[in-house]
Amino acid sequence: MSRFSVVPSGDESPEGATRPVPLEQLLRRAATGDETAFAELYDAVSSRLFGLVRRVVRDPAQAEEVTQEVFLEIWRHSARFDPSKGAALSWMLTIAHRKAVDRVRSAEASRNRDEGYGASNQDVTHDSTAEAVVERLDAERVHRALETLTPVQRQALELAYLSGYTHTEVATMLDLPLGTAKTRIRDGLIRLRDTLGVTL
Amino acid sequence: MSEDIHALSGAYAVDALDDVERARFERHLAGCPACRAEVDGLVAAASELSVLTEAAPPASLRAKVLAEIATVRPLPPLTAPQAESGDDAVTSAPPAPSQPAAEAAPAESHGDQGRHADELSERRRSRSARGLARGWRVVVAAATVAVLAIGGFTVWRQIDKDPSRALADQVLAAPDATRYGARLAGGATATIVRSTSLQKAVIVTSGMAQPPTGKVFQLWLQDATGHMTSAGLMPGGGDQVVVLSGDASHSKGAGITVEPAGGSDQPTTNPIAFVAFA
């Protein structure tokens, strides 16, 4: 992960100035039952996974519960990760997203999750300044890429991915003709993929 | 309809399909390498959005996670497909170009998916058994099972090798297809999709536990007099798409019961799910 290696890590790090171990390698070690590797993996990705889960689920206690299930699942399936189909982080985020969406849909009626998308964007609570800078750059890059989408594509994508609504619900919320929200989501994702230069 | 289904790739990549659409799309994916490659790319693009939502979890979570994983053995890696999986229809799907290990993944997925579901539901059952008066229940394995379908390991949802697969697809895509949903304990869902013109009903389940040892899930169609006729057995729990046998065009409802292995002539237990076609 370049974002963890752009800025040399502080000397309090147990690894000193050595490059962080790639997530793929940590997963491979976890697959052999290496709990230390998994702890390292947890430290590297827990903010990404928990943040996404919490954004979708909203309720902090449930978000914590879901995140715990997500890590258990990652641990159990670590040997099944296939790097040819995508990056390790993306794989873990996929697991987290699906679990979060399942949780909100099964508890739909009881929760109000209509607050705006911008509201939870400033949650980065890391103390490391260097890391925060890298994160901010990453976030800016994604923000810029999102700006290349049409407003409808962006809204549809955010409602689907960050709020966990189905494309049918998104169509209703955005007053789109039935069946077009899925196209907007797909077009938006394609634009995002191409702008960010996502490669597998 | 097939042009239409390609367009679901984006919604699929961000988990924005409902259970029935997801089942349909995953059946499509199994035979569409272009969609598989597209989904991989769109999933990767979507996950970039998570930099916008980063937030550190409470410090206590770390200890909980590490304590929990210490008690669980990671699953073994996927190994080469077994010869007998060759009778699985899914093996006829062309390998995905983007995926060198494609031959291994889809070919063995039929059995593997079941294995995941078994292991997971077993584990969950044993975890939850303490709190349960009943000997079994439907639990949420939905996330667990379905998530296997995308991301680094692709495990295609179980696909029937018989013509019922094509029939199921027809019913799900029929213009007069009508859905009747049932929510089961633990967040699992069962949706019956009926097409009167095709005289058939299909059940789409998400997150069902495996039946207890020695038991099976049996499907039923109810006629106007309230009589239940067997509509066949379900292959297991997890996420399933199964055509109910028999003519469903005049049925008044459909249900699932737990029966002894081999099934029963009449339901011997209360349905775990029942939907009225009203």
TrEMBL record, chain A:
Gene3D superfamilies named in the record: 1.10.1740.10, Winged helix-like DNA-binding domain superfamily/Winged helix DNA-binding domain
Keywords tagged on the record: Sigma factor, Transcription, Transcription regulation
One Gene Ontology molecular-function label: sigma factor activity
Domain RNA polymerase sigma-70 region: 41-107
SUPFAM superfamilies reported for this sequence: Sigma2 domain of RNA polymerase sigma factors (SSF88946), Sigma3 and sigma4 domains of RNA polymerase sigma factors (SSF88659)
Coiled coil residues, start to end: none
Domain RNA polymerase sigma factor 70 region 4 type, first and last residues per copy: 140-192
CDD domains assigned: Sigma70_r4 (cd06171)
A Pfam family matched in the record: Sigma70_r4_2
GO terms for biological process, alphabetical: DNA-templated transcription initiation
Region (Disordered): 1-20
Entry annotated with the keyword Transcription: yes
PANTHER family found in the cross-reference section: ECF RNA POLYMERASE SIGMA FACTOR SIGK, RNA POLYMERASE ECF-TYPE SIGMA FACTO
Stated family: Belongs to the sigma-70 factor family. ECF subfamily.
Name this polypeptide is given: RNA polymerase sigma factor sigK
Top-level taxonomy: Bacteria, Bacillati, Actinomycetota, Actinomycetes, Micrococcales
Automatic annotation (TrEMBL), chain B:
Transmembrane segments: 135-156
A Gene Ontology molecular function term of the record: sigma factor antagonist activity
Domain annotation Putative zinc-finger: ranges: 3-36
Bilayer topology: Single-pass membrane protein
Residue ranges of the region described as Disordered: 77-127
Record localization: Cell membrane; Membrane
GO cellular component terms, A-Z: plasma membrane
Ranges where the Anti-sigma K factor RskA C-terminal domain occurs: 139-272
Keyword Transmembrane: yes
Location (main, coarse): membrane
GO term, biological process aspect, one: regulation of translation
Entry-linked Pfam families: RskA_C, zf-HC2
Listed Low complexity bias regions: 99-108
Record field: compositional bias (Basic and acidic residues): 109-123
Keywords: Cell membrane, Membrane, Transcription, Transcription regulation, Transmembrane, Transmembrane helix
Protein name in UniProt: Regulator of SigK
Source species of the chain: Nostocoides jenkinsii Ben 74
